[in-house]
């Protein structure tokens, strides 16, 4: 077997996922960790089929999954290539899992509640528990808005003003997500599965208008919270509020490249500087 493809690993016979899904996961991890850089040509279908001992149809299904995620493009007669465009809407979960292939995992999040991060982390941490992912250290930092103080959003739509009852509802959501992240990471440490596993949450008094994820200091995922008017139940009564909708918000991906002047590299560096500046100045400890 060609040594040049060793970074793609082998299939796990004990993994319940189909071979096509496993192959897609291997290629996705190679793309997200820059072993296959934007513009690079993927190994040919015959090469991949030979490496993994599968039929070409299985490889085709794997490539279809990556094309649907907009990670690759195929060119008639030329093969498949890593998509060169880095500013694209992406789905977070596979990127979180790929981040856990590193020995030292760092995840920084800033936004409303961290529900999406909590759910995405749960899947990756489950794989750590059963030994399919084995990082040495995990460090998670979460920046969220303090809903115990007046906020512009979420608010009561009738008055377009801060409302303690609306904030109380939002506070329950943020605390549930923050506590979930802390508990999930702490469990790994308590079980002795990770040499070091920490999750720290800090709060600030600014209204959340966007969400930001920084993975291993090298990738950034950024998205805006649309403000929508909707009716929710507060203390058993319907109330129209202006709310922040984070679920299914498009995330745009930026990654560090070898070119310090590239847009991706500069965006990641600016995001890291912004996060650290808020974390070390106006943010304060979350008391769960």
Count of DSSP strands: 13
Q: Which class of secondary structure composition applies to the elements?
A: alpha+beta
User: Roughly how many Å apart are the termini?
Assistant: 53 Å
Work out the helix count.
7
Compressed to H and E, one letter per element, the order equals HHHEEEHEHEEHEEEEEEHE
- What is the percent of helical residues? 25-40%
pLDDT averaged residue by residue: 87
Our estimate of the beta-strand percent is 25-35%
Structural shape: elongated
Largest sheet: 8 strands, mixed
Low-confidence stretches: none
Q: Going across the major beta sheet, what is the strand order?
A: 3-12-9-8-4-5-7-13
What is the radius of gyration?
Answer: 21 Å
What structural keywords apply?
8-stranded mixed β-sheet; 3-stranded antiparallel β-sheet; alpha+beta; 13 strands; about 290 residues; 7 helices
Descriptive overview:
This protein has 288 residues and is α+β, with helices and mostly antiparallel strands. The protein contains seven helices and 13 strands. Strand 4 (104-111), helix 5 (115-129) and strand 5 (137-145) form a beta-alpha-beta unit. The longest helix is centred in the middle third of the chain and has 28 residues, at 164-191.
């Amino acid at each position: 077997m060609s040594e040049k493809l060793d970074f793609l690993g082998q299939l796990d016979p004990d993994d319940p996922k189909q071979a096509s899904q496993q192959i897609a996961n291997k290629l996705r991890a190679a793309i997200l960790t820059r072993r296959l850089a934007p513009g690079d040509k993927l190994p040919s279908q015959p090469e991949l089929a030979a490496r993994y001992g599968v039929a070409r149809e299985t490889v085709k299904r794997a490539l279809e999954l990556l094309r649907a995620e907009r990670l690759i493009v195929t060119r008639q007669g030329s093969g498949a290539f890593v998509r060169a465009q880095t500013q694209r809407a992406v789905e977070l979960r596979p990127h979180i899992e790929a981040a856990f292939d590193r020995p030292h995992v760092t995840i920084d999040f800033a936004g409303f509640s961290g529900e999406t991060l909590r759910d995405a982390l749960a899947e990756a941490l489950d794989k750590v528990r059963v030994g399919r992912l084995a990082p040495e250290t995990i460090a998670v930092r979460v920046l969220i808005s303090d809903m115990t103080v007046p906020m512009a959003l979420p608010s009561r739509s009738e008055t377009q003003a801060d409302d303690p009852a609306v904030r109380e509802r939002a506070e329950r959501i943020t605390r549930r997500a923050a506590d979930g992240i802390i508990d999930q990471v702490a469990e790994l440490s308590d079980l002795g599965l990770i040499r070091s596993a920490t999750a720290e949450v800090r709060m600030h008094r600014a209204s959340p208008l966007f969400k930001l994820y920084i993975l291993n200091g090298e990738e950034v995922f950024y998205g805006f919270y649309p403000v929508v008017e909707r009716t929710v139940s507060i203390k058993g009564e319907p109330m129209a509020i202006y709310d922040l909708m984070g679920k299914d918000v498009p995330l745009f991906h930026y990654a560090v490249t070898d070119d310090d002047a590239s847009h991706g590299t500069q965006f990641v560096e600016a995001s890291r500087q912004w996060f650290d500046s808020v974390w070390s100045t106006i943010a304060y400890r979350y008391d769960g």
